[in-house]
Design a protein that fits this description.
Blueprint: H1 2-21, H2 24-34, H3 38-63, H4 73-81, H5 83-119, H6 127-142, H7 146-170, H8 178-181, H9 186-203, H10 210-221, H11 224-256, H12 259-268, H13 272-280, H14 283-318, H15 326-347, H16 352-377, H17 388-408
Helix pairs in contact: 1-7, 1-11, 1-14, 2-9, 2-11, 2-12, 3-9, 3-10, 3-11, 3-16, 3-17, 4-5, 5-6, 5-14, 5-15, 5-16, 6-14, 6-15, 7-11, 7-14, 9-16, 9-17, 10-11, 13-14, 16-17
């Protein structure tokens, strides 16, 4: 019975982490990753599995390295790096995640509004009303118990996986050899690979949910060795199904379109599904496209909300002599996030791409660089020191940061 519970518990977290990772970024990934041609895409597929698994494993181990069981990432940062560095890293952690919530608030409003007008041929409610209803519903789920919230996220992920796979298979008859015929020069190949790594980091990132995930594992298993082993299994499975489903979807889209069409999609600043629906004038893609976007944003919203709430709670409590009681803080953040997200979604600003590109290097610093630095410095993590995987994660983290700086300058 205990084994059945453990399997069910692990599966729920695999789906939850998968849902956190598969957000709006995946709908733009085929465009960004496919423009360099077929060969860089193959290399990316080989790299992205180990990158995703090893980086998230490092972050989970960092969270579990506290001398006080039950400490979230913000407390662990302060314990290991001191008060000042702790505040700075907690601030960075919050600003890596919260802007993505803003993107999702705008994205889900635009998706539903567009679907009502273009597919249902009805008049969409006023933007302020629609955005309030959608954001309030998503935040309402976050106020439920962890079990109920995980259940709802799981129910969102099942159709998301099915539709992503279905669309990937549906496009197979449309595949052409245009992407295969594009053989880039070595310099172009390396540049394409270099500049796509931050997009992969962003699209496969489920770090906002890692702290909650690690503490949930710790509470369930209690024994540190068993917790580490079970966490690694869940993270390995998550990375495996992410590579399988997401990269198959990317390959299917890239093989369906020519490099010129991918450039056109980028210029139009629309998701790959919107471009495919327009290209084929296809009712199936026209209806499933918004549905995929809705499921992807909904499931990803929950993981990012957990991370943003945790970051804000850490920041506020580090500035107070007496920490705010967690249940009370849940309600305060729910109200605060509802107001901010609602205002931003109603205004519908165009700076969101900039926020997304800024989030990339901060995610790389927290997900790739900080845990590897901690393994090198902190006595509690010495058992993981000197591994080749640490060097791989560190190098990939610096490549992701440098590629984004290249994009700025």
């Amino acid at each position: 019975m205990k084994q059945d519970n453990a399997t069910r518990f692990s599966l729920t977290w695999v789906l939850n982490l998968f849902g956190t990772a598969v957000g709006a970024g995946v709908l733009f990934l085929p465009i960004n990753a496919g423009m360099g041609g077929f060969l860089p895409l193959v290399v990316m597929t080989v790299l992205v599995g180990p990158m995703t698994y090893l980086a998230h494993r490092g972050l989970a181990r960092f969270v579990l390295s506290s001398s006080k069981p039950g400490s979230d990432i913000t407390s662990v940062v302060q314990e290991h790096f001191g008060v000042t560095a702790g505040k700075l890293i907690t601030l960075l952690y919050f600003f890596a995640i919260f802007p993505i919530l803003l993107i999702y608030g705008v994205g889900i409003t635009n998706t539903v509004s567009s679907f009502v007008e273009n597919q249902l041929h009805l008049t969409a409610p006023p933007r302020a009303v629609l955005s309030f209803m959608l954001i309030a519903a998503m935040i309402g789920v976050m106020l439920l118990s962890e079990t109920a919230m995980l259940k709802i996220t799981t129910y969102l992920v099942y159709p998301l996986v099915a539709i992503l796979l279905g669309l990937s298979l549906y496009l197979i008859p449309q595949w052409n050899g245009a992407a295969l015929s594009q053989m880039p020069q070595t310099s172009d190949f390396l540049t394409a690979l270099w500049l796509t790594i931050p997009v992969l980091v962003f699209s496969f990132n489920h770090s906002p949910a890692i702290s909650s995930f690690a503490l949930s594992q710790q509470k369930f298993y209690q024994d540190p060795q068993q917790t580490d082993k079970a966490s690694n299994t869940v993270l390995r499975c998550t990375s495996g199904i992410l590579v399988l489903f997401v990269m198959f979807f990317v390959f299917s889209c890239v093989l369906t379109l020519t490099p010129q069409e991918l450039l056109e999609a980028k210029a139009q600043n629309i998701s790959i599904l919107s471009y495919l629906a327009n290209k084929f004038d296809n009712p199936i893609i026209s209806y499933f496209g918004p549905f995929v976007a809705f499921l992807a944003i909904g499931s990803s919203f929950f993981g990012h909300y957990l991370g943003a709430r945790e970051g804000l709670e850490g920041l506020v409590n580090q500035m107070r002599s007496e920490p705010i009681e967690p249940e009370k803080f849940k309600k305060i953040t729910a109200l605060l996030f509802l107001i901010v997200l609602w205002i931003v979604a109603t205004i519908n600003p165009s700076i969101l791409g900039f926020i997304e590109s800024l989030g990339g290097p901060i995610i790389a610093m927290i997900l790739f660089i900080m845990p590897m630095y901690a393994i090198h410095k902190i006595p509690a993590l010495q058992q993981f020191k000197g591994k080749l995987s640490n060097a791989f994660v560190t190098v990939m983290g610096f490549i992701a940061i440098s590629a984004i700086l290249y994009g700025f300058f």
